[in-house]
Design brief:
Structural class: alpha+beta
Number of strands: 6
CATH architecture: 2-Layer Sandwich
Strand content: 25-35%
Distance between the termini: 36 Å
Shape: globular
Largest sheet: 4 strands, mixed
CATH superfamily: Aldehyde oxidase/xanthine dehydrogenase, molybdopterin binding domain
Number of domains: 1
Number of helices: 3
Amino acid sequence: HPRHKAALQLAVDQSGYGKKTLPPGAHWGVAVHESFESVVAYVVEASVKDGKPVIHKVTAGVHCNLCVNPRTVEAQVQGSAIMALSTTLPGNAITLKDGVVEQGNFNDYGPARITDAFDVAVHIVPSNDPPKGMGEPGLPPFAPALANAVRRATGKVQRELPLKVA
């Protein structure tokens, strides 16, 4: 679809994917997803250290049609990427025991912390078409993009969350 292609191409172009040299041990991961009629593509630069993914940089391409407030879209996508990181971190599985969720609060589940934060550059595809939703679209494509980078770093295909890096 042209909107998917535009968001993906913008993220790829702005990230330098395939054109710049990554630091030793770092790898690219790419994913694109549409939800709420908006498209978000991520290019993730990541490595693996001590059995945990390390994100160096994230570049997002967003196609939400007419962007009324670019700073709000930027903040939403940045926050979504950090929130999505919580679902990928090793040890962050939601588990059940006797039909009851074992993680009752954040003391039982380790969300991403400020020390896990990374740079997220957000780029918006110009459009004059009617605006679309930008609440959640930045969350779904992050995990697959990171999983693709982790696969390239470890050789292990990632098929579930949280990621099995080690």
